[in-house]
Amino acid sequence: MSQTLVVETRSLTKVYRDFWGRKKKTALNALDLSIHKGEIFGLLGPNGSGKTTTIKLLLGLLFPTAGDAFVFGEPAAKVEKNERIGYLPEESYLYRFLNAEETLDFYGRLFDMPATVRRERAAKLIDMVGLSADKKRILKEYSKGMRQRIGLAQALINDPELVILDEPTSGLDPLGTRWMKDLILELRKQGKTVLMCSHRLDDVQDVCDRIAILYNGDLQELGAVSKLVEDQNRIQVRATSVRETPELKADLEALFRKHGGTMEAMGHPTTTLEELFLKIVEESKARPGRRYLPPAEAAK
Length: 300
Fold this sequence. Notes:
Blueprint: E1 5-17, E2 23-36, E3 40-44, H1 51-59, E4 66-71, E5 74-75, E6 85-88, H2 100-110, H3 115-128, H4 144-155, E7 162-166, H5 174-189, E8 193-197, H6 201-207, E9 210-215, E10 218-224, H7 225-228, E11 236-240, H8 246-250, H9 252-258, E12 262-267, H10 273-286, H11 295-298
Parallel strand pairs: 3-8, 3-9, 6-7, 7-8
Antiparallel strand pairs: 1-2, 1-4, 4-5, 9-10, 11-12
Protein name: Fluoroquinolones export ATP-binding protein
InterPro entries: AAA+_ATPase, ABC_transporter-like_ATP-bd, ABC_transporter-like_CS, ABC_Transporter_VariousFunc, P-loop_NTPase
Keywords: ATP-binding, Hydrolase, Nucleotide-binding, Transport
């Protein structure tokens, strides 16, 4: 993972107000995030936690009440930076009476791509998302999973450096879900940065390098998935070619050798991301105002 920052927010805040200017809801409260080049970053939280607001602020579709957001080192409000971004919303806004080829050609035109480049890229993406046999059908006839696939293709038509995915596995069957996760990992191999939101926590755990968990607009947890799901209070030992016996438990290494086995790994067992997520949400409910603090601040 590169140390080059692709996304950065500094005390990013969004407050929604009513017609008279009175405070209605704080959708996002002083969010500090840094997402690096080549990283798959997961943004998690229950409905109303501020995920979609964060995405809209990064895309320049909303303006912050306070704080700053930067993408590629440019202010998020700068529209030109969106040429380097691909976005798949939870519900794709696609024209139902166009087919797959026409859809990608239309979005390619928005980026002023030459006709030959549009055709080549559209053909490659249609094949990549597995819609070659259905490319002449209008999108009205597509299932939700098929619309999700063509939606991803349109998000990649401009060969973006940053790909933002909102519920990318929504509507996909288990095979389609596995395909989507493999594709997200492939995008990282290509050097792209991926920011994804999902309610399917097992999907996030499978592909994300780091995650941030939001609740009621506050950042509750931030870190590497592998570290966050570790149980620091327990030790796990794995061995092969050996059966568990009382003698084995008494002295691990000696008994592994005595019984003809080999110790393969020793470390902290992990919980699931789903269990961690639910635990943090419950703690947040029990402790209003709880916020994530960097280790340096928490130690003060």
